[in-house]
Amino acid sequence: MAQAKTLGQFIIEKQADFPYAKGELSRLLRDIGIAAKIVNREVNKAGLMDMQGEAGSTNIQGESQQKLDIYANEQFITALKSGGECCILASEENEEIVMLDTDVSLDAKYIVAIDPLDGSSNIDVNVSVGTIFSIYRRQSTSGRATLADVLQMGVNQVAAGYVIYGTSTMLVYTTGKGVNGFTLDPSIGEFCLSHPNMKIPKTGIIYSINEGYYVHFPQGVKSYIKYCQVEDEATHRPYSSRYVGSMIADLHRSMIKGGIFIYPVTAATPGGKLRLVYECNPMSFVIEQAGGRATDGKNRIMELDVNSLHQRTPIFIGSEQMVLKAEEFMAEAVEEEMSMGLAG
């Protein structure tokens, strides 16, 4: 049996793809991998270590923080600060950016945006959760980095990925040259290459959306859901509805089997629910690099202007053909509304 290639070995081999980085990006990715292994250890024994349940605090979005949310956030801050390659961390769990520049990292070239534990409310019921991360090059050239360095469009990402803590723990990432997946081998404590050159199927038979909010969805989304439910042998419909409640879990399944994940606007969240900087942009980068598509129902996610740290957006993401079909229904609904308005 051929010897498994570890994440560290793979990153070193690919370092030549980033002549401008001089090894900093490689070290930064390794730091993220180390923090992920620490978080994985605590996730797997959360019930034994009193790490389940709410912490009694809320994050900037007003959502209850889980104990593991806080723990994971602290681990990534510690790892990135000690590594010295990152000057700013933007996290779902912090209202403001976290300055990491020390004597070691005063001239650090990279910004990291992160959702330390996506789907953490699922911890108590033993459902998969994960970490989403995004890496940008700092834009300013002198002084301390600022919030403006963080508020970059998704097309400026130099790397992005996610870690899913499930029946096995996987780290999936891209640096703009394809997507590769690494599975944690607990016997040696290393992420090993298990899914080289990952490609998302062009179409699928699974749609993921919280249908409990159906009555609050835009008409285009309602029409697409009905389309998914209609029997049609040629297109393998009806499609199956699968919704975990963790963006990473639903999208990782789509990466392997094909599918679409939708989190649209609703009456309660007219700007969308998921965050652009540290959820939608990084996952869009990964999905696009795997051959998929990610939009807000009309516009490419990674080309949206970023105006605030915790900015929200609707998202349609997954297999290219499924996202395109959903966009058709969104466009038709807009046209119908416009024609009715003119008629009125």
TrEMBL record:
As cofactor, the record names: Mg(2+)
Q: Where is the Fructose-1-6-bisphosphatase class 1 C-terminal domain?
A: 200-330
**Annotated metabolic or biological route of this protein:** Carbohydrate biosynthesis; Calvin cycle
Keywords, ordered alphabetically: Carbohydrate metabolism, Cytoplasm, Hydrolase, Magnesium, Metal-binding
Residues annotated as binding Mg(2+) 1 are 92, 115, 117
Q: Does the keyword Magnesium apply?
A: yes
Judging by the UniProt lineage, the source's domain of life is Bacteria
Provide the cofactor note recorded for this chain's UniProt entry. Answer: Binds 2 magnesium ions per subunit.
Keyword set includes Magnesium: yes
| InterPro entries associated with the record | FBPase_C_dom, FBPase_class-1, FBPase_N, FBPtase, Fructose_bisphosphatase_AS
Gene3D superfamilies assigned: 3.40.190.80, Fructose-1,6-Bisphosphatase, subunit A, domain 1
The top EC class is hydrolase
Q: Which reaction does it catalyse?
A: beta-D-fructose 1,6-bisphosphate + H2O = beta-D-fructose 6-phosphate + phosphate
* E.C. numbers: 3.1.3.11
State its location(s).
Cytoplasm
UniProt cross-references to HAMAP family, sorted A to Z: FBPase_class1
Q: Provide the protein name.
A: Fructose-1,6-bisphosphatase class 1
